UniProtKB/TrEMBL annotation:
Gene from which the chain derives: ulaB
Occurrences of domain PTS EIIB type-2 (ranges): 2-94
Protein species of origin: Robinsoniella peoriensis
InterPro entries per the UniProt record, alphabetical: PTS_EIIB-like_sf (IPR036095), PTS_EIIB_2 (IPR013011), PTS_EIIB_2/3 (IPR003501)
A GO molecular-function descriptor: protein-N(PI)-phosphohistidine-sugar phosphotransferase activity
Lineage: Bacteria, Bacillati, Bacillota, Clostridia, Lachnospirales
Keyword Transferase: yes
Keywords: Transferase
Keyword Transferase: yes
Pfam family, one: PTS_IIB
GO BP: phosphoenolpyruvate-dependent sugar phosphotransferase system
Entry protein name: Ascorbate-specific phosphotransferase enzyme IIB component
Length: 99
């Protein structure tokens, strides 16, 4: 099971919308994942237990080094772009998680 974290600036609207999209994408692609959303500040405490962080390029550049895969997409509410970004990250780094 993957731990996926959706991160935006305030952790309210955008990351929540992203979380809902990511859950649907995982369900549609048979990816077993726990998906959470939070603000950038909160992400610092979650990142050590996260497999994939899905965020925008501006926030990705400020995340501290970790073992998490940082998956960047310019538009966090563009379902097509988010799907492509997430699936590419899973296929490249966690290929056994796609059933």
């Amino acid at each position: 099971m993957l731990n996926i974290l959706c991160v935006c600036g305030n952790g309210m609207g955008t990351s929540t919308i992203l979380k809902i999209s990511v859950k649907k994408i995982c369900d549609q692609n048979n990816i077993d994942a726990t998906v959470e959303s939070c603000s950038f500040g909160e992400a610092l405490s979650y990142i050590t237990t996260t497999d994939i962080v899905l965020t925008s390029p501006e926030w990705a550049g400020m995340l501290p080094p970790s073992n998490a895969v940082i998956a960047e997409t310019k538009n966090l509410i563009d379902t097509k772009a988010v799907t492509e970004t997430l699936l590419n990250a899973v296929k490249e780094h966690f290929p056994n998680e796609i059933k």
